[in-house]
Specification:
Length: 684
Amino acid sequence: MSSQAHAPISLFGFFNNRRINTKIMLGFASILALTAVLAVVSYRGLSEVKAGFDTFNQRVAVVGMAREVDRGFVGYRRLVREYALTGEAAPMQEAKRRQPVLAELIGRAVAETKNPERHKKFVELGDAFKLYGDQFDRLIALRQKQDRLVRETLDPLGLASRAEIEEMQALSVSRSGNSNNMVLAGEALKQLLLVRLNVNKLLGRHEQSAADGAERALAALKVAMAAFSASIVNDEVRKVFAEVNANVDKYADTYHQAAHNAHEIELLSNGEMTKLAQAITADADAIKASGMAEEKQIEHETAELIVSTERLVAILAIGALVLGLALAWLIGRAIARPVIGLCAGMRELADGNFQVVLPGLGRGDEVGDMAQAVELFKVKAEEKARAEADAKAAEDRRLAALRKQEMIQLADQFEGAVGEIVQTVSSASTELEASATTLTATAERTQQVTTAVAAASEEASTNVSSVASATEEMASSVNEISRQVQESARIADEAVSQAQSTNAQVGELSAAASRIGDVVELINQIAGQTNLLALNATIEAARAGEAGRGFAVVAAEVKALAEQTAKATGEISAQISGIQSATDQSVTAIRQIGGTISKMSEIASTIAAAVEQQGAATQEISRNIQQAAIGTQEVSENIVEVQRGATETGSASGQVLGAAQSLSRDSTMLKQQVSSFLATVRAA
């Protein structure tokens, strides 16, 4: 259980420890691999569909040739039968014109048919058609012979025999006056006409029942002719009768030849040629049935192939989409979360919180490098802050001790100077006793002036010391601020450099996403071309009519497949556009961060300039303090002058005892005040 629980964490940790470019390359490589598989599957599916279409077209072509052969043979046979019935030259010539065309079509079908069974059927059909053509040539010969018999013998003999019988009938009346011969001649004429009528029915209309009528009429004609011959008494009539009888016998012989030819034509056209025609039609029907059955099979197999290809393409497209979303989430999470954590940690560091724990430490990617660099910055900053605090405390202690020592020295100097003055005044008080009365007023005024000037000098000295101390502290603060501002400027420059590097990497990510978009657009163009081909195929199938119905169904399926492929590539393109949009937003955000850091750098530069101005102001204050010290020195010199005047006045007032005594008391009081003042200064 433990290993299973830690397996996803270890896998995620392994993913986090990869470099960012490795993660991005891995993500896009996975998507490109699935896209390549999708393209290969689509290409193979379309290739197999094309092969199915080619096979289907070949079968359609074979069936079309079989239909064309069947249709052409039906027309050809109709012309043959029409010629056999009518004997007209036009159907025979048209049939002869169509015969080589049909033979060429059968030969092309034999050459283009690959299926052994259908090839055999076409070969048999071609052999049967050749035999049928030979029989047609024989039929033409028989029909032409029959036409010659009718045209050259039967029709002329029939007309001549009729005219001769009519002449024989007329001669019988005019020469012999025998009415019986006229009746017999009339009967012979009647039977001749019946013979000719039945012969025409048999030969012209192919009425087989007319053959018996012709034979009966011919027998009756011979009986009538025999009866007429027995009653002839006139030689001229006998001569005409001999010609008529010879013509009738020749007519009968020619009729029997023509009847035999007609019978052979009947047997040929309705016998062998009919069997050959039935065999040709049966072979054509068998070829059509076989081809159409195979068309149905190919159509079914192609439809199943299209469905399976659609299913596989859909599965791969969904897999690519899911994988792309998962990789986008993982890569975005692996980059954004630690960067956000680092930003929060850096804000804590900026607020002076050095106890913050930076996220991303221990990672093996660029985020881990950034976290390690920030951690090093935190450690250095903490050490530097601690060292600066210690140095500042030591400096404060040193300055305090220095100020105290200066105050003690100042008190000692003041004590020495004032003590000497008091001692001088005390020693001079004895001398001033004589002139105290005269110079009392002058001594009092001098004492007041000296006291006021001393107080002013003391106050000025104190103020100068305070200002000097404040100036030193200000100089120290200005130096510290300048150093901190320079450090902030350096850190801002480093942040700008890192932001520019991150911006370049994200720009490469955006360029890679654009290249994937180009691949998806290429797939979309292929799908559009496929859709266009399917549309053209549908139009061609519509032109083909009933024969292209199955091809139209397959073309519609291919068109639907192309539309689905275009839709899938459109969805992939939308996802990649989302990635590009997110990448562009990241670039914009990083640029804004870089701009903000640049503004911070500008602010730091402004602060540095202000600090320099503060330093200049501090120098100006120092110069003013020096001038104040000069003024204090001048005051001290004036005090010396006053003291000199007081000494002179003390010399004059030394003669005054009262003044000296008063001065002695004042000196004592002055000593007490000085002692109290010095005690206060030393205590401070």
